[in-house]
Design brief:
Helix content is 35%, strand content 26%. The chain has 276 residues and is α+β, with helices and mostly antiparallel strands. The N and C termini lie far apart (72 Å).
Length: 276
């Protein structure tokens, strides 16, 4: 596909993400939406169809409520680059994969339609954009979804050399910055609310720990730890003093940070138990 390059002011060449879900915002119903991360706000998309060229199909892991969730990213080249993101086990993903498995030539444009179903479910219909013909395949319980995904990836040409011959889902995790992983692991250990981490990051004018100096990450880690200790120690200064000795000083001496924090938590719990 050859597109004319438009000169002048424009938006950054970043993909537009469409998230599949049935809902309503300010009285406006939708079956997919954009998401403003900085405002944590859903932006309904009134159009139910997207016409373009399927350029890539990938599986991506995304964190949700402290757990990794497998997402299907349907990458579409159109007036902009779009990524339709949905859970790999959703009705939308499976109905899309069923229809796409019948397509043999992805150099031709397709129309991807989001249709509302019962109880907040969303299904996908696929059409040949030139003939407006619906592409349909019967649902079956015996379908091998991993194989269907690999077959489509092979036809698209971008993943055929990296696909395993075994019938397993080919997960393509996003690269994780060490500072992001550090915060995630400690937050999970402490069961610290993800929303509070996001709020703290917003006060730093960022949405990712990887964009901050390590001293700021140390501050965030301490904040999460002392929040966990609240109520577990009669004297807050004691919890902070133990944190300095058992975590900060221990890490400087070469102890793994997660191990040091676990030791600190156990020590506080032991003190609390002894006091009671």
């Amino acid at each position: 596909m050859v597109t004319e390059i438009k000169l002048g002011l424009c938006n950054p060449p970043e993909p537009i993400y469409l998230y599949v879900n049935q809902g309503e915002v300010d009285g406006e119903s939708f079956v997919w939406y954009k998401f403003n991360i900085s405002q944590e706000k859903k932006i309904p998309v009134p159009q139910r169809a997207l016409t373009g060229y399927l350029s890539e199909l990938r599986l991506t892991t995304k964190e949700f409520k402290g757990r990794d969730n497998l997402k299907l990213d349907i990458v579409v080249s159109a007036d902009e680059l779009y990524v339709i993101r949905t859970g790999v086990e959703t009705n939308f993903a499976k109905s899309f994969l069923l229809a796409a498995s019948l397509v043999q030539d992805f150099s031709k444009p397709l129309i991807i339609v989001a249709n509302a179903g019962d109880e907040n479910t969303v299904f996908c219909n696929l059409y040949d954009a030139a003939t407006k013909t619906k592409i349909y395949r019967e649902w079956s319980r015996d379908l091998d979804w991993a194989t269907i995904i690999r077959d489509i990836q092979s036809l698209l040409g971008g993943a055929s050399s990296t696909i395993s011959a075994t019938p397993k889902l080919s997960v393509v995790p996003q690269s994780v910055h060490p500072q992001d992983l550090r915060v995630k692991n400690i937050r999970t250990l402490l069961d610290y609310p993800l929303d509070l981490v996001r709020e703290w990051l917003q006060f730093q004018d960022t949405n990712s720990p990887s964009q901050l100096h390590i001293s700021k990450i140390d501050e965030l880690v301490k904040t999460m730890c002392l929040a966990w200790a609240a109520g577990k120690c009669d004297h807050p200064n004691h919890a902070e003093s133990l944190y300095q000795n058992l975590v900060v000083d221990a890490v400087v001496s070469g102890t793994d940070e997660l191990t040091a924090i676990k030791t600190w938590m156990q020590q506080l719990q032991a003190v609390k138990t002894g006091a009671s």
